Amino acid sequence: MKRGQWLQARREELKLKNSNNASAWSLRGVAEALGVSHSALSHLERSDAMPSLDFAIKLAELYGKPVEWVLTGVDAAMENGIPIVGTTLTGPAADYLNHGYDPEKFHQFVDIPTSGARSLYGLRIVDNLQSVAYPYGDVVIFEKDGRRMPGELYLVKLRSDDNFIQVLSMVNTREEGIVFNSAAEPLERMTFHEDEILFMHPLVAVVSAWNIQKV
């Protein structure tokens, strides 16, 4: 299911529940409440486009859902934020990948309500990813169980090289493997066979350091 489909379904659900004020839940009514154009919201509902984090937060508040649901479709009980489980140099901690979120081990989180599924995690940006788009100290949010789509950015970890952890742009899939562009060097292409990849997690958002809280 495309992201726009679950967003549209939720709006239609709220429209039925609030039949006395159905116009507030029309495309135009919701667009006005969110401060965007009717056409922008219509495009979002007809596509699989990833909304900005700020816009996702507004949608989540209006629709009464976790931010994670807006971004991934996952819906569960509300909990505190998105755990920070490593840096862009080290990648997510093995404990998190193997056993999931443990509040005894991970004491920092991004202060955005999310679901109990904990499929979103954060990495602090360090020197290897530092750029205008990724300021040092901010947090990059990734989805642990995300879908694969050409044109999206992914955190890629190889099985054969413990030191290879990079943010790459997926170009396409060929018989010889998955083709990526380097995020740092867009003209540099690399191809990895499925068996070579330990994981590839889609990049969801970049969050300012001021959103970081401690448990």
From TrEMBL:
Domain HTH cro/C1-type: 25-70
Gene Ontology molecular function, alphabetical: DNA binding
Name this protein carries in UniProt: HTH cro/C1-type domain-containing protein
Classification via InterPro entries: Cro/C1-type_HTH, Lambda_DNA-bd_dom_sf
CDD domains named among the record's database cross-references: HTH_XRE
Membrane-spanning intervals of the chain: none
Pfam families for the chain: HTH_3 (PF01381)
